[in-house]
Amino acid sequence: MTSFLRLGRSVSRLHVRPCHQSVYSRNTNLRRVEVDLGEKKLEISSGKFARFADGAAVVQLGDTSVMVTAVSKTKPSPSQFMPLVVDYRQKAAAAGRIPTNYIRRELGTTDNEILTSRLIDRSIRPLFPAGYFYDTQVLCNLLAVDGVNDPDVLAINAASAALALSDIPWDGPIGAVRVGMVNGELLVNPTRAEMASSTLNLIVSGAPSSQVVMIEASAENVLQQDFCHAVKMGVKHSQQIIKGIQRLAREQNVTKRTPAKTFLAPTEMLEHTRKTLSEKIYAVFTDITHDKISRDEAINKIRLEAEENLKENFPQAEPFEIIESFNVVTKEIFRNLVLNEYRRCDGRALTALRNISCDVDLFKPLHGSALFQRGQTQVLCSVTFDSMESSVKTDIITTALSGIKDKNFMLHYEFPPYATNETGRMGGLNRRELGHGALAEKALRPVVPKEFPFTIRVTAEVLESNGSSSMASACGGSLALMDAGVPISSAVAGVAIGLISKANSENPSELEDYRLLTDILGIEDYLGDMDFKLAGTNKGITALQADVKIPGLPLKVVMEAIQQATVAKKEILGIMNKCISKPREHRKENGPIVENIRVPVSRRARFVGPGGYNLRRIQAQTGVTISQVDEETFSVFAPTPGAMNEAQEFIREICKDDQDQQLEFGAIYTATITEIHDIGVMVKLYTNMSPVLLHNSQLDHKRIKHPSALGLEVGQQIQVKYFGRDPTDGRMRLSRKVLQSPSATFVKTLSEKQSISMGSNNSEMPDANL
Length: 770
Prior knowledge:
Layout: E1 4-5, E2 12-17, E3 31-37, E4 40-46, E5 55-61, E6 64-72, E7 84-89, H1 111-124, E8 136-144, H2 151-164, E9 175-182, E10 185-188, H3 192-196, E11 200-207, E12 211-222, H4 224-251, H5 267-285, H6 292-313, H7 319-341, E13 356-360, E14 368-374, E15 377-386, H8 396-402, E16 409-414, H9 431-444, E17 455-464, H10 469-483, E18 493-503, E19 511-518, H11 522-526, E20 530-536, E21 541-548, E22 553-554, H12 555-579, E23 593-598, H13 601-608, H14 613-622, E24 625-628, E25 633-638, H15 641-655, E26 668-677, E27 680-684, E28 692-695, E29 717-725, E30 732-735, H16 742-750, H17 752-761, E31 768-769
Parallel strand pairs: 1-10, 7-8, 16-17
Antiparallel strand pairs: 2-3, 3-4, 4-5, 5-6, 6-8, 9-10, 9-11, 11-12, 12-21, 12-22, 13-14, 14-15, 15-17, 18-19, 18-20, 20-21, 23-25, 24-25, 26-27, 26-29, 26-31, 27-28, 29-30
Helix pairs in contact: 1-2, 1-9, 2-4, 4-12, 5-6, 5-7, 9-10, 14-15
């Protein structure tokens, strides 16, 4: 299927508007730029809000506006990495709502906020200069949300503008767009309504010269050629946003600050390290007998030796200079091995996969389980079914801002410290675990049937990790779903592609040479330039996430990475199919059961019980979950067949009321008063009957406030007339009042023989007189 861009959106234009004269003098620095993205206009402005920040910008699309501020300290931070914090928060006021917690304030962070913060971080982090270790904070403030245009992509562009318009050293700007696909037609920055029917949700962050810095995508089995076309379209439109931000920066005459200190290794220390340690480091990286643990131990041994040597030869050196010197040389040797000798540290060819093994049905009590092993990466996946009431319920603010609603499929990713032979804190959820789990969930969600009668939870626990554990989770999750008997439309596999590149000495934004690596190890990810994760079926792509560590990646490399990942994905699927090729026809015998039961209106009150008492009692004693489907149908979820049998017996006992079928409309019966209330009396017509209310209005023709006015007492027998069941709530309709008229005696005399005949058919039923 060939995709094309909606007519009218193929032309992008740029308009700069100076501040209107009517703006107050305090806003004389306000500048705006408009970017035409086909039928929509993206407005970027600066100079009005948050002017104490190093940089601040507002991006507006439709009536959705997002402000982002950027502040960076002038004193360096004692760390070995760029201390960047990105915080995206959903503001209830922006959506016209009030938080639902008890103090009515925004508390904590939601999954959507964390994932959006990661999107922004991954987009801007690669463009900070090397050695810039200054605390930098990027805060995203939602000003207004119209419910039509999502604010997440706007926040990426606002962060780019805030950094570009500040004096913070940053090699931007970047531009970001969302691309959707409806009926094979590509849409740029589609509305929320359009995204509801879109088979693609692609976010592309582009750098100048049509390069890519970040890709995040979920898709419903989109073909490779369509996906590639969407990426190109996204990069093309991102360039217009970049030009708009560059124009604003020129208008404001932005000058970048010069850091007091950059944390880079001195040249003389680098040369000394190369001369003394290169051979030892090279020997470790070319010894293919090493595994992850032994290789790390060998490198750490050389590191300790290097630190002692450098301290002796450079006594005035700072600790970071010593560490950085060793790290730079180690990285050079590792990368040159790939670039110049086409060799990987484990001996594989550049496009070769690690050894893969699969196993399913590991533990009988589980609804579904699988173990996926790829090299030294091992993931245990389990599938759990529960009732539809166990689905994820999003809070009203998340729903209002992002449109995310309840979902009955979830994947939770766990990465305990022992997976890398370390100790650490257990419990809680960090951003990395949430991001990896969200990616694996995106990969599997398109193949899970939407009308499945259970809520599905896949748990992916990483038992060993040496790279690409998120894609191993997608593979293991697919196997576990098939083992559980979930009728997924196709198996899913994922793989990570790495990059080792060499920048052009004359133009650092261009690559002079590069190598793409299939199924990367942890060290290849750490010392490489890219982590490109792709998942999908034999037919197409379901998820893609690209993290780039260099300032930009040419489109050519992105297309090659997609192709190389697609080849590897099909090879992995072939191995997985040897373990289990299709979903089991039946779920496990100990699995949950869902059944619909029909409760006639006449029995509904008895089934539910006073105030829902009977329903609560069934659920508490049997462990089932009961929910009402329609007027006469209830859905019963049981975690095991035994629980269902127990619940069914319970329900039969509650609804057992055979004598009710013998009552005749218009017949007169003797009722026994069991309770007296202000509004009436509770009566029984026979022994095993639930008491029925006989209201004051039906006791006598006189208007009374309490049954005692008629001398009624508990245990007293009275005559009542039966008028069948109320069609709306099934309650029994009785009246004593109608028997107080002369006509009632006449009817009683005429029907005497018939009532005697009824009474003889059932010895437990009171005598009926007509």
